[in-house]
Amino acid sequence: MLSIEGAINSIEKIGRAIRKLGLLVLVAFYLHGACANAQSIDSSADEGNSADSVSYRGGSIRIGAFAIADISSRIYYGPSDLPIALPIDIQEDLGVSDSLLAFRGSFSYRFSKRHAMSVGYYQFKLEGSRALERTLEIGGSEFEIGLDVASRYDEKTLKIAYDFIFHDDGKVLLSISPGLHVSSLDFSIAALPNLPAPGPSEDASVTAPLPMLGGRIKYSLTPKWSMVLSSNVFLLSTGDQSGAITDSSFVFEYQTNSAFGFGVGLNLYTIDLDIDDGDKRWDVQSIYSGAYLYGVYKF
Hints:
By secondary structure, the chain is α+β, with helices and mostly antiparallel strands. The protein is built from 3 helices and 13 strands, in the order αααβββββββββββββ.
Protein backbone atom coordinates (compact mmCIF):
# COMPACT_ATOMS: atom_id res chain seq x y z
CA MET A 1 0.00 0.00 0.00
CA LEU A 2 1.03 3.63 -0.08
CA SER A 3 2.19 3.75 3.57
CA ILE A 4 1.24 2.55 7.01
CA GLU A 5 -1.18 5.47 7.26
CA GLY A 6 -2.57 4.64 3.80
CA ALA A 7 -3.06 1.02 4.81
CA ILE A 8 -4.95 2.05 7.92
CA ASN A 9 -7.13 4.40 5.87
CA SER A 10 -7.84 1.60 3.38
CA ILE A 11 -8.86 -0.79 6.16
CA GLU A 12 -11.16 1.88 7.61
CA LYS A 13 -12.76 2.46 4.18
CA ILE A 14 -13.35 -1.26 3.69
CA GLY A 15 -14.88 -1.46 7.16
CA ARG A 16 -17.20 1.45 6.41
CA ALA A 17 -18.20 -0.17 3.12
CA ILE A 18 -19.04 -3.46 4.86
CA ARG A 19 -21.06 -1.68 7.54
CA LYS A 20 -22.89 0.35 4.89
CA LEU A 21 -23.92 -2.71 2.88
CA GLY A 22 -24.77 -4.61 6.08
CA LEU A 23 -27.02 -1.79 7.25
CA LEU A 24 -28.75 -1.69 3.86
CA VAL A 25 -29.38 -5.44 3.99
CA LEU A 26 -30.67 -5.28 7.58
CA VAL A 27 -33.06 -2.45 6.75
CA ALA A 28 -34.22 -4.33 3.67
CA PHE A 29 -35.02 -7.49 5.62
CA TYR A 30 -36.72 -5.48 8.36
CA LEU A 31 -38.98 -3.75 5.85
CA HIS A 32 -39.61 -7.04 4.06
CA GLY A 33 -40.68 -8.67 7.30
CA ALA A 34 -42.88 -5.75 8.29
CA CYS A 35 -44.60 -5.72 4.92
CA ALA A 36 -45.05 -9.50 4.99
CA ASN A 37 -46.74 -9.30 8.41
CA ALA A 38 -48.96 -6.43 7.33
CA GLN A 39 -50.12 -7.95 4.07
CA SER A 40 -50.67 -11.55 2.94
CA ILE A 41 -49.28 -12.06 -0.55
CA ASP A 42 -49.73 -15.13 -2.65
CA SER A 43 -46.36 -15.05 -4.41
CA SER A 44 -46.88 -18.26 -6.34
CA ALA A 45 -50.03 -16.88 -7.93
CA ASP A 46 -48.21 -13.65 -8.80
CA GLU A 47 -45.37 -15.49 -10.48
CA GLY A 48 -47.67 -17.77 -12.40
CA ASN A 49 -49.92 -15.09 -13.80
CA SER A 50 -48.52 -13.95 -17.16
CA ALA A 51 -50.79 -10.92 -17.34
CA ASP A 52 -49.45 -9.78 -13.96
CA SER A 53 -45.85 -10.21 -15.20
CA VAL A 54 -46.60 -8.02 -18.20
CA SER A 55 -47.88 -5.25 -15.91
CA TYR A 56 -44.43 -5.00 -14.28
CA ARG A 57 -42.57 -4.87 -17.57
CA GLY A 58 -40.96 -1.55 -18.51
CA GLY A 59 -37.78 0.48 -18.58
CA SER A 60 -36.34 3.82 -17.56
CA ILE A 61 -33.52 6.12 -18.63
CA ARG A 62 -31.90 8.55 -16.20
CA ILE A 63 -29.53 11.25 -17.43
CA GLY A 64 -28.06 13.94 -15.24
CA ALA A 65 -25.08 15.43 -13.49
CA PHE A 66 -23.05 14.65 -10.40
CA ALA A 67 -22.20 18.09 -8.98
CA ILE A 68 -19.10 17.14 -7.00
CA ALA A 69 -18.35 19.69 -4.29
CA ASP A 70 -15.45 17.82 -2.67
CA ILE A 71 -12.75 15.73 -4.38
CA SER A 72 -9.78 14.07 -2.72
CA SER A 73 -7.44 11.97 -4.90
CA ARG A 74 -4.07 10.40 -4.19
CA ILE A 75 -2.16 8.42 -6.82
CA TYR A 76 1.02 6.40 -6.95
CA TYR A 77 2.33 5.10 -10.28
CA GLY A 78 5.80 3.64 -10.37
CA PRO A 79 8.04 0.60 -10.05
CA SER A 80 6.51 -2.40 -8.26
CA ASP A 81 9.67 -3.10 -6.27
CA LEU A 82 9.96 0.37 -4.71
CA PRO A 83 9.98 -0.27 -0.93
CA ILE A 84 8.45 3.08 0.03
CA ALA A 85 5.78 4.48 -2.26
CA LEU A 86 5.20 8.22 -2.00
CA PRO A 87 1.72 9.17 -3.24
CA ILE A 88 0.79 12.27 -5.20
CA ASP A 89 -2.07 14.42 -4.00
CA ILE A 90 -3.34 15.60 -7.37
CA GLN A 91 -5.16 18.59 -5.84
CA GLU A 92 -2.25 19.90 -3.74
CA ASP A 93 0.73 18.73 -5.81
CA LEU A 94 -0.64 19.16 -9.35
CA GLY A 95 -3.20 21.97 -8.97
CA VAL A 96 -6.17 19.87 -10.07
CA SER A 97 -9.59 21.28 -9.15
CA ASP A 98 -11.36 19.91 -6.06
CA SER A 99 -14.84 20.36 -7.62
CA LEU A 100 -16.39 19.04 -10.82
CA LEU A 101 -19.64 18.71 -12.77
CA ALA A 102 -19.62 15.13 -14.08
CA PHE A 103 -21.98 13.36 -16.49
CA ARG A 104 -23.90 10.38 -15.13
CA GLY A 105 -26.43 8.19 -16.91
CA SER A 106 -28.20 4.87 -16.41
CA PHE A 107 -30.63 2.51 -18.13
CA SER A 108 -32.78 -0.12 -16.44
CA TYR A 109 -35.36 -2.59 -17.65
CA ARG A 110 -37.71 -4.76 -15.59
CA PHE A 111 -38.68 -8.06 -17.21
CA SER A 112 -41.07 -9.33 -14.54
CA LYS A 113 -42.05 -8.90 -10.90
CA ARG A 114 -38.75 -10.39 -9.68
CA HIS A 115 -36.19 -9.77 -12.42
CA ALA A 116 -34.58 -6.67 -13.92
CA MET A 117 -31.26 -5.44 -15.26
CA SER A 118 -29.43 -2.12 -15.18
CA VAL A 119 -26.50 -0.40 -16.86
CA GLY A 120 -24.80 2.75 -15.58
CA TYR A 121 -21.99 4.98 -16.82
CA TYR A 122 -20.19 8.00 -15.44
CA GLN A 123 -16.91 9.81 -15.95
CA PHE A 124 -14.69 12.03 -13.80
CA LYS A 125 -12.25 14.12 -15.83
CA LEU A 126 -9.80 16.26 -13.88
CA GLU A 127 -7.14 18.60 -15.28
CA GLY A 128 -4.68 21.07 -13.80
CA SER A 129 -1.33 22.82 -14.15
CA ARG A 130 1.13 24.41 -11.74
CA ALA A 131 4.79 24.85 -10.80
CA LEU A 132 5.83 21.90 -8.64
CA GLU A 133 6.57 22.64 -4.99
CA ARG A 134 8.41 19.34 -4.51
CA THR A 135 10.21 16.82 -6.71
CA LEU A 136 7.95 14.01 -7.89
CA GLU A 137 8.91 10.48 -8.93
CA ILE A 138 6.28 9.22 -11.41
CA GLY A 139 6.67 6.08 -13.49
CA GLY A 140 10.28 6.13 -14.63
CA SER A 141 10.62 9.93 -14.68
CA GLU A 142 11.63 12.61 -12.21
CA PHE A 143 9.80 15.95 -12.20
CA GLU A 144 11.97 18.46 -10.35
CA ILE A 145 10.80 21.14 -7.96
CA GLY A 146 9.87 24.40 -9.74
CA LEU A 147 9.01 22.66 -13.03
CA ASP A 148 5.79 23.82 -14.73
CA VAL A 149 3.64 20.77 -15.49
CA ALA A 150 0.19 20.00 -16.88
CA SER A 151 -1.64 16.89 -15.69
CA ARG A 152 -4.83 14.97 -16.43
CA TYR A 153 -6.64 12.28 -14.47
CA ASP A 154 -9.65 10.50 -15.97
CA GLU A 155 -11.89 7.85 -14.37
CA LYS A 156 -14.53 6.10 -16.47
CA THR A 157 -16.90 3.61 -14.87
CA LEU A 158 -19.34 1.16 -16.43
CA LYS A 159 -21.67 -0.88 -14.22
CA ILE A 160 -23.76 -3.83 -15.40
CA ALA A 161 -26.04 -5.53 -12.89
CA TYR A 162 -28.80 -8.08 -12.56
CA ASP A 163 -31.49 -6.94 -10.13
CA PHE A 164 -33.40 -9.50 -8.10
CA ILE A 165 -36.50 -7.82 -6.64
CA PHE A 166 -37.43 -9.90 -3.62
CA HIS A 167 -40.22 -7.60 -2.42
CA ASP A 168 -42.54 -5.12 -4.15
CA ASP A 169 -45.99 -4.35 -2.78
CA GLY A 170 -46.43 -1.01 -4.57
CA LYS A 171 -45.28 0.91 -1.50
CA VAL A 172 -41.87 -0.61 -0.76
CA LEU A 173 -39.45 -2.13 -3.26
CA LEU A 174 -36.40 -4.09 -2.10
CA SER A 175 -33.77 -5.52 -4.43
CA ILE A 176 -30.28 -6.98 -4.44
CA SER A 177 -27.94 -6.55 -7.43
CA PRO A 178 -24.87 -8.68 -8.24
CA GLY A 179 -22.96 -7.41 -11.24
CA LEU A 180 -19.76 -6.21 -12.87
CA HIS A 181 -17.97 -2.91 -12.25
CA VAL A 182 -15.43 -1.87 -14.91
CA SER A 183 -13.14 1.04 -14.03
CA SER A 184 -10.82 2.64 -16.59
CA LEU A 185 -8.15 4.94 -15.12
CA ASP A 186 -5.95 7.27 -17.19
CA PHE A 187 -3.24 9.52 -15.82
CA SER A 188 -0.78 11.76 -17.63
CA ILE A 189 1.69 14.45 -16.63
CA ALA A 190 4.09 16.45 -18.79
CA ALA A 191 6.36 19.46 -18.49
CA LEU A 192 4.90 22.54 -20.17
CA PRO A 193 6.60 23.43 -23.47
CA ASN A 194 8.60 26.38 -22.12
CA LEU A 195 11.94 24.58 -21.82
CA PRO A 196 14.87 24.67 -24.31
CA ALA A 197 14.57 20.87 -24.65
CA PRO A 198 11.57 18.53 -24.26
CA GLY A 199 10.85 17.91 -20.60
CA PRO A 200 9.84 14.70 -18.86
CA SER A 201 6.41 13.17 -19.37
CA GLU A 202 4.48 10.08 -18.28
CA ASP A 203 1.22 8.58 -19.53
CA ALA A 204 -0.39 5.46 -18.09
CA SER A 205 -3.75 3.71 -18.10
CA VAL A 206 -5.31 0.62 -16.56
CA THR A 207 -8.69 -1.10 -16.83
CA ALA A 208 -10.01 -3.18 -13.93
CA PRO A 209 -13.16 -5.33 -14.37
CA LEU A 210 -14.37 -6.15 -10.88
CA PRO A 211 -17.35 -8.00 -9.37
CA MET A 212 -19.78 -5.98 -7.24
CA LEU A 213 -22.80 -6.41 -5.00
CA GLY A 214 -25.49 -3.77 -4.57
CA GLY A 215 -28.82 -3.18 -2.93
CA ARG A 216 -31.69 -0.75 -3.32
CA ILE A 217 -34.63 0.39 -1.21
CA LYS A 218 -37.42 2.44 -2.81
CA TYR A 219 -40.24 3.85 -0.69
CA SER A 220 -43.22 5.57 -2.32
CA LEU A 221 -44.14 8.57 -0.19
CA THR A 222 -47.05 9.59 -2.44
CA PRO A 223 -48.20 8.50 -5.92
CA LYS A 224 -45.70 11.01 -7.38
CA TRP A 225 -42.91 11.25 -4.78
CA SER A 226 -40.55 8.40 -3.90
CA MET A 227 -37.40 8.03 -1.81
CA VAL A 228 -34.57 5.80 -3.06
CA LEU A 229 -31.54 4.57 -1.13
CA SER A 230 -28.99 2.55 -3.09
CA SER A 231 -25.48 1.30 -2.44
CA ASN A 232 -23.00 -0.71 -4.51
CA VAL A 233 -19.94 -2.25 -2.89
CA PHE A 234 -16.91 -3.97 -4.37
CA LEU A 235 -14.27 -5.72 -2.22
CA LEU A 236 -11.40 -7.72 -3.72
CA SER A 237 -8.02 -9.12 -2.69
CA THR A 238 -6.07 -11.30 -5.14
CA GLY A 239 -2.43 -11.75 -6.00
CA ASP A 240 -2.14 -8.63 -8.14
CA GLN A 241 -5.28 -6.61 -7.31
CA SER A 242 -6.82 -5.42 -4.08
CA GLY A 243 -9.16 -2.65 -3.07
CA ALA A 244 -12.62 -1.39 -2.30
CA ILE A 245 -15.16 0.66 -4.26
CA THR A 246 -18.41 2.09 -2.92
CA ASP A 247 -21.11 4.03 -4.75
CA SER A 248 -23.98 5.19 -2.53
CA SER A 249 -26.84 7.59 -3.22
CA PHE A 250 -29.89 8.92 -1.42
CA VAL A 251 -32.40 10.68 -3.69
CA PHE A 252 -35.97 11.94 -3.86
CA GLU A 253 -37.66 11.33 -7.21
CA TYR A 254 -40.75 13.12 -8.52
CA GLN A 255 -42.83 11.69 -11.39
CA THR A 256 -44.51 14.60 -13.19
CA ASN A 257 -46.54 12.22 -15.41
CA SER A 258 -46.43 8.59 -16.52
CA ALA A 259 -43.35 9.19 -18.69
CA PHE A 260 -41.25 12.04 -17.27
CA GLY A 261 -39.82 12.96 -13.90
CA PHE A 262 -36.71 14.19 -12.11
CA GLY A 263 -34.62 13.36 -9.09
CA VAL A 264 -32.37 15.19 -6.63
CA GLY A 265 -30.20 13.92 -3.82
CA LEU A 266 -26.71 13.15 -2.54
CA ASN A 267 -24.06 10.83 -3.94
CA LEU A 268 -20.81 9.44 -2.47
CA TYR A 269 -18.31 7.54 -4.61
CA THR A 270 -15.02 6.16 -3.29
CA ILE A 271 -12.32 4.09 -4.95
CA ASP A 272 -9.24 2.53 -3.34
CA LEU A 273 -7.34 0.26 -5.74
CA ASP A 274 -3.88 -1.32 -5.72
CA ILE A 275 -3.01 -2.96 -9.08
CA ASP A 276 0.38 -4.56 -9.77
CA ASP A 277 1.23 -5.80 -13.27
CA GLY A 278 4.67 -7.09 -12.26
CA ASP A 279 6.58 -4.08 -13.60
CA LYS A 280 4.59 -1.02 -12.50
CA ARG A 281 2.06 -0.50 -9.76
CA TRP A 282 -1.05 1.69 -9.58
CA ASP A 283 -2.28 2.81 -6.19
CA VAL A 284 -5.35 5.05 -6.38
CA GLN A 285 -7.42 6.53 -3.56
CA SER A 286 -10.27 8.87 -4.55
CA ILE A 287 -13.33 10.26 -2.79
CA TYR A 288 -16.08 12.17 -4.62
CA SER A 289 -19.10 13.63 -2.84
CA GLY A 290 -21.80 16.05 -3.88
CA ALA A 291 -25.32 16.55 -5.24
CA TYR A 292 -26.91 14.29 -7.84
CA LEU A 293 -29.44 15.84 -10.26
CA TYR A 294 -31.13 13.98 -13.10
CA GLY A 295 -34.12 13.68 -15.39
CA VAL A 296 -35.95 10.40 -15.89
CA TYR A 297 -37.91 8.97 -18.79
CA LYS A 298 -40.01 5.82 -18.24
CA PHE A 299 -41.48 3.60 -20.96
